[in-house]
Amino acid sequence: MAPGATFVDSAVESGAVFNTKRDGKALEALSDDIDAVNALNPSGKSNNIKNSTPEEKSLYDESVFDKSKDKSQFRQYTTACDRVKNFYHEQHTKQTVAYNLQARNRFRATTRARMSVWEAMEKLNTLIDESDPDTTLSQIEHLLQSAEAIRRDGKPRWMQLTGLIHDLGKLLYFFDAKGQWDVVGDTFPVGCAFDDRIIYGRESFKSNPDYSHEVFDNGLGIYFPGIGLDNVMLSWGHDEYLYHVVKGQSTLPDEALAMIRYHSFYPWHNAGAYEELMNEKDRQMLRAVKAFNPYDLYSKSDELPKVEELRPYYEELIDEFFPEKVINW
């Protein structure tokens, strides 16, 4: 892996504007803690990684790779470490309607970098893992574990690619994010009442300027029943950012876009909140997100994917669904 100074030079040459002062190690440590809260506690190892592709199955077929996982615990956020609790206090204070409008305007006004999907994976690899000499797996290995679990279960090729890229939005941390609170963590709508099924509940938003706002925190707020989640602002972070990057530059189906956008929207896909905002499309997309969720939570294992052996297969997948090799980030 290239040293940090070499990475900065290559980023400048490619037109990328990275904030090299960000603490990638701290972001990844927090992200791992959040994953631990959301995941069912696994006991036992996942199946060995196989590079062969089985006969394709429906995306809605039950996942097989995680059958040996013990799923007796789920979202134990009341006993989470202080780092997670402090993170959510900050996130719930700062994710306002005003900030979300600003973040979207900034996204539309700026191209942060131009690079291929695989190059983006390598950048994330360097930015995060170069800062942590004790890390066991690189970011690319984590991404490949998710994609390979989907591939072993015979799910569609577009879903395999979705598993590969679904966390690439973490690059936002090194562009114009304000901190960790607008990159990772559970997501939720802004502009309507804060629901008690959001992690740590409605009371955790008391310091948010939108809390008790006569419009933004009143029922459906700026929305109306059945408006559809496509028309709802979800709290800005790595999934919302990547969704906006991918939806206009790939041929991935709506189900893949939903997996990317909603995989951290736990109040919705796990707790049943915000159903009144849904339309018929959202009900179909909910099934897809639930089908994807196990591969997001349980694909990490001790088995190391062989990156260079797998790279040609996944670069072919990328080319299949991204018409332009170089895309705007």
UniProtKB/TrEMBL annotation:
- Do you know which Pfam families this protein is assigned to? MIOX
Q: What EC number(s) are associated with this protein in UniProt?
A: 1.13.99.1
Cofactor(s) the protein requires to work? Fe cation
Task: Give the GO cellular component terms, alphabetically.
Answer: cytoplasm
Alphabetical keyword list: Cytoplasm, Iron, Metal-binding, Oxidoreductase
Q: Does the keyword Mitochondrion apply?
A: no
> Which reaction equation describes what this protein catalyses?
myo-inositol + O2 = D-glucuronate + H2O + H(+)
Associated pathway: Polyol metabolism; myo-inositol degradation into D-glucuronate; D-glucuronate from myo-inositol: step 1/1
Protein family according to the UniProt entry: Belongs to the myo-inositol oxygenase family.
Name recorded for this polypeptide: Inositol oxygenase
Supply the source organism for this entry.
Answer: Talaromyces amestolkiae
Where is the organism placed in the taxonomic lineage, from the top? Eukaryota, Fungi, Dikarya, Ascomycota, Pezizomycotina
